[in-house]
Amino acid sequence: MLVLIDPLGVDPPHALALEKQLAAIDFERAQHKLLLPAVRRNRLCALPWDAPALSLPRRNKLEPAAKRCATRPRSPPHYPLLRPAAMHFFFPPQLPPAAMDLFPDGQHVWLRSSGRGEKYLHADEGGVSVRVSSKRASPLSAWKVHHAVDPEDGETYVLLCSAAYGRYLTATRVPAPRGHKGRLVVQGAYNTFNSVAWRPERVGAGDGGDKVVLRHYSDHLLRANGEFFFWNKGISADATNRITAMSHWVVRAIPPRPFPPELPAAVLVSLLCSARLCTKMDVATVVPGVPGRNIRFVRAADDGTFAPDPDDWDEFRFNGRSEVELRAAVAGALEEPNVLGIKLCARAGRFARPVPLTIDLPRHERVMEIVVLTEGSPAAVALQYPDIDAP
Predict the structure, then answer these.
(1) Which neighbouring-strand residues pair with 121?
(2) Where in 233-291 does DSSP place strands (E)?
(3) Where in the numbering of this chain does the DUF569 domain appear (predicted)?
(4) Which residues contact 391 (CB under 8 A, 6 or more apart)?
(5) What is the spatial distance between Cα 165 and Cα 308, in angstroms, rounded to a whole number?
(6) Domains, the chain, ranges and CATH?
(7) What is the pLDDT of residues 294-327, one digit of tens each?
(8) What pLDDT, on the 0 to 100 scale, is given for residue 192?
């Protein structure tokens, strides 16, 4: 004979005590298997007829409601919903540590987009826009790392300088073009710290390098575009609440060349011929209305020091994009007899570092600042050239 006990009304905290009492029953004398899980589900359970009486605690329905509420656990306090700006004010986000070990000062790097496959961060030949391109073996895809310290909090940030024209990766407040997300990213001059400062953060390992996100000083992330429409190749800085694979970049260090790139024989002959023509012309004059661009240049000392204010530099008008003709024109303006005895470095901004000029000038006709180094001087020997043909 079985006695049916209805455990309805048993509080869940007493289920463990009930199981301990049921475990003391002699199961050999039981006629049916004891269903312990049924107690937890508030169902009828079968017990032997000679089972000891179970003390099942029941809820006292006559207990005052105030007393029951006093013993009931309190719910957590309710906070009103805050806007993202207010959330950052009351609860500052804990950013991961910066991956500065992947960006040593003075190192050249490739940045491959994780969301666009074999596409690299590429400085456009126009000298203004930035996009993704599959042309890895190009100075336009190489970026030189420049460390700078924030004057407000003392934190070190990464500045990415193009190895082609010396212009810096800059995030603007201008909305990105149609089909792109976030704000426009361009090649800019280093005159203000806030526009060119980036903070790398490691997010994992990618194919052939470490994967990072680049957080701008304005808390926007550098991202590629064209996830669904591949013809959108521009670069933008998007908000941090939309982190996708388009915001991930695989970093690869570019080894330096043991020697600077040599000029081909045909280019060398053209350089010598251009130097003879430029020595007979007055190139140090600016003629308004003449097509071309203004070139501001200064001769640096052997240790690389020069006058920082470009207003104190010499200036002349130059028409064309050839780097060979520009070197000949600068040699003529400096009255330098040996045109091969100087090196040209481009500087973009008052606080920028000079970068050796190894390709033709950009298509835009803005003013260019040129720092002239003497061949064989300590400053010229210390220049680094990325080996863009490295595997």
Answers:
(1) 132
(2) 235-238, 249-254
(3) 100-251, 292-373
(4) none
(5) 18
(6) 2-59 (no CATH), 100-254 (2.80.10.50), 265-381 (3.10.20)
(7) 999 999 999 999 998 888 899 999 988 888 889 9
(8) 92
Q: How many residues are given for the chain?
A: 391
Cα–Cα nearest to 251, from 213, 281, 288: 213
- Please state, in angstroms and rounded to a whole number, the distance separating the CA atoms of residues 111 and 119: 9
Q: Which residues pair with 299 in a beta bridge?
A: 372
- Phi, psi angle pair for 288, to nearest 5°: -65, 145
Residue 210, SS3? strand
Alpha-carbon dihedral sign for residues 257, 259, 265, 269: positive
Q: Is 391 exposed, middle or buried (0-12, 13-18, 19+ CB in 10 A)?
A: exposed
Residue 196's pLDDT is what?
95
For residues 113 and 121, the answer to whether their CB atoms sit within 8 Å is yes
φ, ψ (nearest 5 deg) of residue 207:
-75, 110
What one-character-per-residue DSSP string does 19-75 give?
Answer: HHHHHTS-GGG-SS---SHHHHTT--EEEETTPPPP---B--TTS-HHHHHHHSPPP
- Give the relative orientation of helices 265-279 and 323-333 as an angle to the nearest 10 degrees: 30
Greater pLDDT, 26 or 117 = 117
In this structure, of 202-211, 273-282, 284-293, 353-362, the range with the lowest mean pLDDT score is 273-282
Provide φ and ψ at 327, rounded to 5°: -65, -40
Instruction: Please provide the average confidence, as pLDDT, over all residues in the chain.
Output: 77
Is the pLDDT at 211 greater than 60? The verdict is: yes
Smallest Cα–Cα separation from 194: which of 247, 237, 144, 157?
A: 157
